[in-house]
Amino acid sequence: MENTKELRTWLDAMNLEHPLVIAGPCSAETEEQVLRIAHELKDSDVNYFRAGIWKPRTRPGMFEGVGEIGLRWLKKVKAETGMKTCTEVANAAHVKLAIENDVDLLWIGARSTVSPFIMQEIADALAGTDKIVLVKNPVNPDLALWLGGIERLYTAGIKNLGAIHRGFSTYEKTKYRNTPEWQLAIEFQNKFPDLPLINDPSHITGKRDMILEVSQTALDLNFDGLMIETHFDPDNAWSDAAQQVTPAALKQIMEDLKVRKETNTDEAYKKALDNLRAQINVADNQLIELLGKRMKVANQIGVLKKDKNVAVLQSKRWNEILGNMILEGESRGLSEEFVLKMFKAIHQESINHQEKIVNA
Ligand SMILES: O=C(O)C(=O)C[C@]1(C(=O)O)C=C[C@@H](O)C=C1
Fold first, then answer.
1. What is the pLDDT of residues 47-80, one digit of tens each?
2. Rounded Cα gap, residues 241 and 175, in angstroms
3. Is 301 near ligand 1, meaning CB less than 6 Å away?
4. CA–CA separation, 219 and 260 (whole Å)
5. What is the pLDDT of residues 131-158, one digit of tens each?
6. Residues 6+ apart with CB under 8 A from 269
7. Does ligand 1 come within 6 angstroms of the Cβ of 10?
8. With a threshold of 0.90, does the pTM exceed it?
9. Do both 29 and 126 map to the same domain?
10. Rounded to an integer, what is the distance from CA 76 to the centroid of its chain?
11. Which candidate, 260, 203, 259, 210, places its Cα nearest to that of 229?
12. Residue 301 included in any domain
């Protein structure tokens, strides 16, 4: 699959003046709940009404969705509000039912994207459809697996495609439910700049009070849209209560978000930007030169260690460096997270060099 302008045809055809918005409850619970939320969202920027019909839950015994009957409620949403509808599909049977019930957009969840077998089954079931199909990232930060899933659909003749970035599972506890790993989303855009990319701040944050912040970051990184879980009584939702927002809160988020343009043709802006970018180029070259110098010193230490049969890893010294650099970084406005990541990478490279030397 190659990047082409045609990949965004379905989105361009919508002629939106704001990012694409998909909103609605995590799960369809009752007909009244679905219709009430839909009516409360009707006069807003929402383009697609979402509701989970089949819910992939971490453990058995939790609410696993209302199933097929929910598709009839989505039909009513469309008839009563004019909003297009969407839901998650996770196997061929779901696809068949969703298409029969005229769901407009289908998405494939993170727990399905991880399985090439499931992705192939879904691709075969969808073959040739003109429905829009969005693929969430797999739970693990694996760009090739994500793109591979999309390629299976593309190869099956599905042309209205897109991706949803919902963050990645980690063993460590972080402030996110699923860490965004924005770098991966940036890489995704570098490979497929024209494939529509939607952000799912609800699953990234797991908390409603962080949704605005994450949505803004997504828009600043040129995402094409947002999928935000919405419920009139979030605290009593049957699934994902902490991350859902009310329709009123969603409208407020949309109002507060700043949509920025990808570029600006103003001459003074371009001149100032060129100047600053030239400074960045100089700094980047200095960084690389300095890193090369540092590595040469690490190589010399490697030679000393080989000579005296000393272990490559020196944890005490390494911890000293980390502590000092975190403090230094702080005084220069660099976050601890960044300094740690950067020095861990430098240390690993140093170890790789020394490993080669001591084992030569
Ligand atoms: O100080 C050392 O012993 C080194 O080899 C240098 C260095 C580093 O790159 O800073 C590399 C490996 C050790 O674990 C500790 C530090």
1. 999 999 998 877 888 888 999 999 999 999 999 9
2. 17
3. yes
4. 7
5. 999 999 999 999 999 999 999 999 999 9
6. none
7. no
8. no
9. yes
10. 30
11. 203
12. yes
